[in-house]
TrEMBL record:
Keywords: Transferase, Tricarboxylic acid cycle. Signal peptide: none annotated. GO terms for biological process: carbohydrate metabolic process; tricarboxylic acid cycle. It comes from Staphylococcus agnetis. Pathway: Carbohydrate metabolism; tricarboxylic acid cycle; isocitrate from oxaloacetate: step 1/2. Transmembrane segments: none annotated. PANTHER family: CITRATE SYNTHASE, CITRATE SYNTHASE, PEROXISOMAL. This is Citrate synthase.
Length: 372
């Protein structure tokens, strides 16, 4: 029997052309994340992950048109949120339910022809933005906002969420955030998506399963907890005392360190830059200053560097986004990666069926209940 690897750490479970992490550098289909974050639209990155190449002008416009077309939900989806859109229901719970419900409005949900799968991927990518924003508005007693075909995917999300067009700085920051979160090799939720569809289940099942995996605080919830920490600290004068207490109690400081990156998360610097810009634009510069001080102390005391979640928290907060929507936004971005992994899994599929080492008792015999 092969040696146990807890958490499958170091186990190679798939071959992929989607993304790679080599020597602490993240690439999408061979393109350095630095190059994409500086220059690309999120729509271009979607296409790249699904096709292993960047689109030409015609292909990009076709993708944009389809995303706009599919963003509007079936009327029953909007009314569906009225049944449970309250503050008592976490948006990730709502998203898990609503992604599954999407399948009811796709007459060909079980068609695994490659063209049908690709079109379904665009459909899900478009609609997941509307699911998150519609839930958020309905629970506040507001009507959902339909997409604006003149806006990019990133701008449309913010517009559908808030009902007003975002600033250029906000669109730049949100577009970067979507790109930086789009894929991350064989992470827990991507692996979950591949496992689900490896049985030849439908793409909606794969995405629903991935949402369920991302919901866990060890995977997708870190930036929400970063914002909770910043709120508890409140002032730059409180940083040292807060961290000393946390260190003394051996508490984990959210938004620092990474299982894969030993020399620092290459995505963090872009969100640090956007955090600086957006907090300044919105008059919340102290949040950025608090973040810098936390980062300095954690580096000095623990030798840990910020990861992508640390600065994304202040970026989203400064845009007026509710803190419990941070993980659903992660899901909106990561759907592009999940779709890519599902498409890739099904091109050369074999059902996932690992083994387990049995460590329980052996040679036991059944006894009648009156003798137990």
């Amino acid at each position: 029997m092969a040696q146990l690897q807890k958490g499958l750490e170091g186990v190679i479970a798939a071959e992929t052309k989607i993304s790679s992490i080599i020597d602490s550098q993240l690439t999408y289909a061979g393109y350095d994340i630095d190059d994409l974050a500086e220059n690309a639209l999120f729509e271009e990155v979607m296409f790249l992950l699904w096709n292993y190449r960047l689109p030409n002008e015609k292909e990009l416009q076709e993708l944009k048109d389809k995303l706009h077309h599919y963003m509007t939900l079936n009327p029953r989806m909007y009314s569906h949120f009225e049944e449970y859109a309250t503050d008592e229901v976490h948006p990730m719970t709502a998203l898990r339910t609503s992604v599954s419900y999407l399948a009811h409005f796709d007459d060909n949900a079980d068609d695994n022809d490659e063209k049908a799968l690709y079109e379904r991927g665009i459909r899900i990518q478009a609609k997941i933005a509307s699911l998150v924003t519609s839930f958020a508005r309905v629970r506040e007693g507001k009507k959902p906002v339909k997409p604006d075909t003149s806006l990019s995917y990133a701008a449309n999300f913010l517009y559908m969420l808030r009902g007003e067009k975002p600033t250029d700085v906000e669109v730049e920051g949100f577009n970067k955030a979507l790109i930086l979160h789009a894929d991350h090799e064989l992470n827990a939720s991507a692996f979950t998506a591949r496992c689900a569809v490896s049985s030849m289940s439908d793409m909606y099942s794969g995405i629903t399963a991935a949402v369920g995996s991302l919901k866990g605080p060890l995977h997708g919830g870190a930036n929400e907890r970063v914002m909770r920490m910043l709120t508890e600290i409140g002032s730059i004068d409180n940083v040292e005392a807060y961290l000393k207490k946390a260190f003394d109690n051996k508490e984990k400081i959210m938004g620092f360190g990474h299982r894969v990156y030993k020399d620092g998360d290459p995505r963090a610097k872009y969100l640090k830059e956007m955090s600086h810009k957006i907090t300044e634009e919105t008059g919340q510069s102290e949040l950025f200053e608090i973040s810098l001080k936390i980062a300095d102390i954690v580096k000095q005391e623990k030798g840990l560097l910020p990861n992508v979640d640390f600065y994304s928290a202040t970026v989203y907060h400064s845009m007026g986004i509710d803190h419990d929507l941070f993980t659903p936004i992660f899901a909106v971005s990561r759907t592009s990666g999940w779709v890519a992994h599902i498409l890739e899994q099904l091109r050369n599929n074999r059902i996932m069926r690992p083994r387990a080492t049995y460590i329980g008792e052996t040679d036991r015999k059944y006894e009648p209940i009156e003798k137990r």
